[in-house]
């Protein structure tokens, strides 16, 4: 299977040096390390997106429950007036 090639232009020298050091520590080539970093970063982002989707759904449901359980403003106003 033919794998596509990805070129990264104008990469800062410090970034390339850090990637080289990381590759050396992990016993990988610079290319293999770059792929690992990209895959890991994308996997984390997918997790974050899924988490936010679940959080949004929860807050929508929770807000709907709170609104349904909260007394109507006119009931509160009437109770306040009657208490005087």
Task: List the defining traits of the structure above.
mainly alpha; 3 helices; 77% helix; rod-shaped
Question: How would you describe this protein?
Answer:
The chain is mainly alpha-helical. The protein has one domain. It has three helices and no strands. It has helices spanning 13-26, 30-69, 73-83. α1 crosses α2 (30-69). The longest helix is centred in the middle third of the chain and has 40 residues, at 30-69. It is rod-shaped. The model has no long low-confidence stretch (mean pLDDT 86).
Task: Please describe the topology of this protein.
Blueprint: H1 13-26, H2 30-69, H3 73-83
Helix pairs in contact: 1-2
**Net shape:** rod-shaped
Whole-angstrom Rg: 27 Å
Give the tally of β-strands.
0
Number of helices: 3
Distance between the termini: 82 Å
- In which range does the helix fraction lie? over 70%
Largest sheet: none
Low-confidence stretches: none
Strand content: under 5%
Q: Which structural category do the helix and sheet elements fall into?
A: mainly alpha
What is the domain total for the residues? 1
- Rounded mean pLDDT is 86
User: What is the H/E order?
Assistant: HHH
In short:
The chain has helices at residues 13-26, 30-69, 73-83. It is an all-alpha fold and 84 residues long.
């Amino acid at each position: 299977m033919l794998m596509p090639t990805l070129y990264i232009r104008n990469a800062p020298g410090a970034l390339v040096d850090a990637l080289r050091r990381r590759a050396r520590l992990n016993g990988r080539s610079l290319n293999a390390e770059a792929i690992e970093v990209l895959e890991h970063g994308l996997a984390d982002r997918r997790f974050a997106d899924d988490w936010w989707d679940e959080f949004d759904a929860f807050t929508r449901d929770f807000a709907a429950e709170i609104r349904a359980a909260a007394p109507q403003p006119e009931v509160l106003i009437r109770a306040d007036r009657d208490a005087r």
